[in-house]
Amino acid sequence: MTAISATEEVRARVETALKRCGVDPAAFAGDGVTARTPVTGAPLFDLRAHGPAEVDRAVDAAHEAFLTWRTTPAPVRGALVKRFGALLSEHRQDLAALVTAEAGKIGSEALGEVQEMIDVCDFAVGLSRQLYGRTMPSERPGHRLMETWHPLGVVGVISAFNFPVAVWAWNAAVALVCGDTVVWKPSELTPLTALACAALLDRAAAESDAPPHLNQVLLGGAETGARLVDSPLVPLVSATGSTRMGREVGPRVAARFGRSLLELGGNNAAVIAPSADLDLAVDAAVFAAAGTAGQRCTTLRRLIVHQDVVDDVTDRLSAAFRVLPVGDPFRDGTLVGPLVHGAAHAAMRAAVERAVAQGGSVLAGGERELADLAPDAHYVRPALVRMPAQTEVVREETFAPVLYVLSYRDFAEAVELHNGVPHGLSSGIFTRDHGEAERFLAADGADCGIVNVNIGTSGAEIGGAFGGEKDTGGGRESGSDAWRAYMRRATNTVNFSGRVALAQGVDFSG
């Protein structure tokens, strides 16, 4: 890669995309939040952070909207989400440009993230006619026992920089068809994408005759998020980010008896068995480890390879890592864009140095690139590190493209290495042995929320519930029955017998 977009070029792309989505950045000008681009490392706009009183007003407005929205028929709520999905399709390129400018994703990944928004809208529209409860047999004659599901209230969404639009959409589309309203605190690193999405949703609401204030955006840092987390009018907080953040959010919400949906970090691993298709396994591992410059919660961070094939696998991976096109994510042909900021680069350097100190050897990558063209940006070549054991640094999540390779002798050892970390988000095994695959999927196999066979750890379809166990937080977003987190359950008994009949045969007649 021989060129990096100038900051003026990036700013012009951003201004055009924002204007097309209905956002004037001048209307949000002020102090507290600086929108930057990792493409050059330079600031784009200074935006006004929301203070405590503004957070409270946004929550109050969302709560007032909820009082109307909760009684709107669910299929009508689905019609709003359908219109929103159509607007997302219309502005797919605009939103992708904003994702690339603020998060540094290459073009295909940015477009893929926007497509996830469109897909989850499709899912939610169908869901709006399928918010099913159950009818259960009653032990009392002349009684009907059933459960119903009702809207919960205001849903607070705190999202991270690496998926600046998709994760919010996973929450917002489902919450809206469930009858909830949303207050969104995006990452302070990606405020512009949030403003664009909010403008499109507001437009969809107006065109659908829906009440205003169904979705509110709060710009700011940790203080803004804390105010949202502590609000008694927010019964559910869905927070995506680091485990450290989740340890702060979870107890605060629990202290007021609210609900939290936590999707936190991941130290994801894949096992390569001796029977694996190595071409398939290596291709999948390269994308899973280097995609989004290693800044996905589902990024492949540990590769556990059978001792019979580990040398072949590391040779193939080393060759691939050395030639990965690293550079400007706006340029065609780039596969690895920049890290989000200097702190991420510093964390990567420190992790590699610790790995070497703990007996590891760097087989490929790890060096900074393009510093002469973009001195304030942080482009790095993904690092491949062979480790003699699962040491302390390997057990930690480093949010950067560092792939540790470990070897194993038998299946039990592979599972033990795989599960021997605090996180439990995504996992995979590459094998042609059907029995081995089934053992990996079994209760005493991989301990993650996402367990794959012959596919990498990154990437998810919206039809399946997304989330993980242990230090990943236990939350589930998007598909399957994840909608239940956004609603409250009521158990109903209807007595049509004409007499009082107590459960368990209790006689209270005296």
Automatic annotation (TrEMBL):
* Tree of life domain: Bacteria
What PROSITE patterns does its record include? ALDEHYDE_DEHYDR_GLU (PS00687)
Establish whether keyword rRNA-binding is in the entry: no
- Pfam families under this entry? Aldedh (PF00171)
Give its E.C. classification number. 1.2.1.3
Please list the residues that make up the active site: 263
The Aldehyde dehydrogenase domain covers 35-489
Keywords recorded for this protein, A-Z = NAD, Oxidoreductase
Enzyme class, broadest EC rank: oxidoreductase
- Coiled-coil spans in chain: none
| Gene3D superfamilies associated with the record | Aldehyde Dehydrogenase, Chain A, domain 1 (3.40.605.10), Aldehyde Dehydrogenase, Chain A, domain 2 (3.40.309.10)
> Entry's InterPro entries?
Ald_DH/histidinol_DH (IPR016161), Ald_DH_C (IPR016163), Ald_DH_CS_GLU (IPR029510), Ald_DH_N (IPR016162), Aldehyde_DH_dom (IPR015590), ALDH7A1-like (IPR044638)
| UniProt entry tagged with the keyword NAD | yes
Assembly information from the UniProt record: Homotetramer.
What is the similarity comment for this entry?
A: Belongs to the aldehyde dehydrogenase family.
Name-wise, this protein is aldehyde dehydrogenase (NAD(+))
Q: Source species, please?
A: Saccharothrix lopnurensis
